[in-house]
Amino acid sequence: xxxxxxxxxxxxxxxxxxxxxxxxxxxxxxxxxxxxxxxxxxxxxxxxxxxxxxxxxx
Length: 58
Known about the structure:
Distance between the termini: 37 Å
Radius of gyration: 12 Å
Order of helices and strands: HHH
Oligomer: single chain
Helix content: 55-70%
Number of strands: 0
Structural class: mainly alpha
Number of domains: 1
Number of helices: 3
């Protein structure tokens, strides 16, 4: 049986990965990196949702 991650699981994973990269100094533009990772995962969010995700990083 194959399991597919939900959008919430994908978003949580992106947030955790981005937090780790920020902590290691691997991200110079946090909003841009977050937008790119969401796009790469095929996730679309509203500006309000994006702002909420961005707040989770800080």
